[in-house]
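Write out the 3D structure for:
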Amino acid sequence: MRKPKKTNKFKYIIKKDDLVEVISGRDRGKRGKVLRVIPTDSKVIVDKINIVKRHQRPTQQEKNGGIIDTDLPLTSSKVMVVCPSCDKKTRIGWKILDDGDKKRYCKKCGELIDKD
């Protein structure tokens, strides 16, 4: 009998299109935009970070083979969200606004990150 896949029931802090900075590993200090969030594994794929080279054989869909650069997922604990207003990596807090919306805010400057 297979084990069920674990799921995170909390609202995820990092979202797609957020600007994040890597805080540990070989890419420490680099910034990039989140392309995809994988909440079941607590991982994120960040543009131009954690790039590895893969050897690709030519197929029907991909006519030319060769060495291709691909982005691998990072553990979400290795990245921090960068605040758009103060331009620093920061922890995220949650505020419930007057109209009942729950929005993320920067713990350093207090500004809202979700400007929607």
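The mean pLDDT is 90.
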